[in-house]
Design a protein that fits this description.
The protein has eight helices and five strands; from the N terminus they run αβααβαβααααββ. By secondary structure, it is mainly alpha-helical. α7 (122-150) packs antiparallel against α8 (156-184).
């Protein structure tokens, strides 16, 4: 399984732990509310759902809203399928939530993990935050060393781009320091993000989206229609 597929599995299980959803709602939450993924097609989401169903981590059932009931009576249409987490799926999510290895510190993986910090134990949050900070401090040292070696050969615009990248990493390190200090003091963040977490965009330093250092807009082609 690729890293991106693993992140998608984790995020889908986490969202469905909050409440059952149909495919369209899941895709919307993944792309907007969480802010973890670049835009992707239903052709990416539904194979993931199919795998989770085959593993016994999800069940699917017809929707029961008035709109869904009406849809079943219209020619050529069927009710939206609602996906629900099973007991085994909850156990799988808990297992993934407790993992604190190196993969948890990578850019997109950390963003997905952070989105569900409200469901994560404090000691696991601390290990992930400290691991992410160490990873970024290592990255920052390499960036500074590279800039020192090549400064004289860079034009002004390339030099400014290098500085911007360093400032973005430095900003996230400061943000992580604040989070770690709050965790050590026993303070929980108050915010409106998924899982009750406060969210910050570390590429701009403003609150709103989840951290996606170095991220750029994606353009996956939309796939089949929502189920």
């Amino acid at each position: 399984m690729s890293r991106r597929s693993g992140i998608l599995e984790f995020a889908v299980l986490g969202l469905l732990r909050e409440s059952p959803m149909h495919g369209y709602e899941l895709r919307k939450r993944l792309n907007t509310s969480l802010g973890v993924f670049r835009a992707f097609s239903y052709g990416t989401l539904y194979p993931c759902l199919k795998t989770l169903l085959a593993n016994g981590w999800l069940t699917e059932e017809p929707g029961h809203s008035p709109e869904d009931a009406l849809a079943t009576t219209l020619a050529g249409r069927r009710a939206k399928i609602v996906y629900r987490l099973t007991a085994e799926g909850k156990e799988r999510f808990e297992e993934l939530l407790s993992q604190t290895g190196p993969d948890a510190y990578e850019d997109e993986t950390f963003a997905a993990r952070f989105a569900f910090f409200g469901q994560t134990s404090r000691d696991v949050r601390m290990r992930v935050l400290e691991g992410r900070r160490s990873r970024l401090e290592e990255r920052l040292e390499k960036m500074r060393a590279s800039l020192a070696r090549t400064r004289e050969r860079l034009d002004d615009y390339t030099l400014e781009l290098q500085r911007h990248g360093m400032e973005s990493v430095e900003r996230e390190v400061r943000w992580l320091n604040e989070l770690i200090e709050s965790e050590r003091a026993g303070r929980d963040l108050k915010g409106a993000g998924s899982g009750g977490t406060a969210q910050q965009d570390t590429t701009t330093g403003s609150t709103g989206g989840l951290p996606r250092p170095g991220d750029a807009p994606g353009t996956d082609t939309p796939g089949d229609t929502a189920t």
